[in-house]
Amino acid sequence: MPMNCTSVAAQLRAAVLPIVAALPIAAPALAQTANDPFPNPIETSDGVIVVGFEEFATLPDMDGAPARPMHLVDEPGTGRLFINDMRGPLYSVTYDGEVTLYLDINEWGVPVEASGRERGFQSFAFHPTFNEPGTPGYGKLYTWTDTEDTAPEPDFAPGGGQDSHDTVLLEWTALDPEALTYDGRAPRELLRVEQPFGNHNGGHMAFNPVAAPGDSDFGLLYVGVADGGSGGDPLDMAQNLGSIFGKIIRIQPIGSNSANGRYSVPADNPFAQDGMEGTLGEIYASGLRNPQRFGWDPANGNLFVADIGQNIVEYLSLVTAGADLGWNTWEGSFRFISRPEVDLSDPQSEPGITYPVAEYGQLDPLLQRQSAITGVVVPRGSAVPQLNDLVLFGDFPSGEVFYVSADDLPTGGQSAIRRVVFRDGGESKTLLELIRAKNVEQGREPAGRADMRMDEGPDGRLFLLNKQDGVIREIVP
């Protein structure tokens, strides 16, 4: 179905510019190519939320370069935040910003493959009973890491490509969860994936924070696995239910009924039932390209994923058990043709596909080319009242932060998307502008991109990470 987009001919930091009337995207008679599905730009002034920020903590440089954090996790049992660096370190951070190295994956016989922009220590998660003695999850931490070590036999292989590196899911068990640094033994490997190409391989990983003890979802680990890389999913894996690539998987890490005997496949997974030959029981959702970040709405359990598109569309989608998000047949709401092309003629027209709740075009003048969506946080009872009841996501190269309503979800397109900007003195700035100013203060060349991530901490506190200045910023009212 056609979607409406609000047109605004506005440039960043413009004070007053005319707003153009809303225009529909008409469905042309013939397919269009080499195209922009959203010729009317993202609204830059109407509905903008202005918030404050504080510099909460600074991660140490590595080899003279800023830290490359991907994820911030609150571990309430020990009263600490944890933040990773893609090159291997995991830091603990007190609630008032004191940073300590907790562990470095490289020092445990797992050489991290962190070359390029996309490879490295991708994500991590603490078992929800990490600090509860006598429970199976006591002291257990999980990491999702690209590694140079490809000698062990992989559990999952693509059947093609270049055997670039492996991505491994590791379980670490701390003897004392409250210890300042990791005091356990070497990690246990749960599963290993052979990567066919060097880009978009691993993704986000998390336990469902909404699930409570006794719920069927409690203690189950969700892991994002991208389509393997290159471009356009050349091995056609995202739609292959016998392949782990291009999926979100859901596993019980403390179990043994998997093919390798190192974890369990939940019986209520959508493809775990008897008689479903040719499918992987681990799969929770399929048709993803690069599920870098996902997050739950604590009010209703909605699971949102920010799935990075090819060269045209970035999209935010709801994920349900067994959902097919369309890649590589669809890029957002539009049929995928090739790297620079989608078909505009018949959007959202295939039954059974889960189409985005919101999406935006990489060609938008507000953004950089090769944009990439990130997120996802749904503040409910946030420390920043202006952001309550919204779905927060953003564009990580440009550092733009966006929102849509969490209670009145849109049905595709970018007309509902609005911006969040930051008050710095008397000016409103993007995160990238804040980073560039900090770089000057640090004596560094101002960054050309932000590489932003966002996460929620204790008591609804909201934090922004980036890979250009090492500073963790907290959003404040």
Which range does the strand content fall in? 25-35%
DSSP strand tally: 30
The tally of helices reads 1
**Large-scale geometry:** globular
The portion of residues assigned to helices is under 10%
Fourth-tier CATH superfamily name: TolB, C-terminal domain
Count of structural domains: 1
Look up the CATH topology. Neuraminidase
Describe the secondary-structure layout.
Blueprint: E1 4-5, E2 23-24, E3 49-58, E4 72-75, E5 80-84, E6 89-94, E7 99-104, E8 121-126, E9 140-147, E10 165-173, E11 188-195, E12 202-207, E13 221-225, E14 247-251, E15 283-285, E16 291-296, E17 303-307, E18 313-319, E19 330-331, E20 334-338, E21 341-343, E22 358-361, E23 373-377, E24 390-395, E25 400-405, E26 418-424, E27 427-429, H1 431-442, E28 453-456, E29 462-465, E30 471-476
Parallel strand pairs: 3-26
Antiparallel strand pairs: 1-2, 3-30, 4-5, 5-6, 6-7, 8-9, 9-10, 10-11, 12-13, 13-14, 14-15, 16-17, 17-18, 18-22, 19-20, 20-21, 23-24, 24-25, 25-26, 26-27, 28-29, 29-30
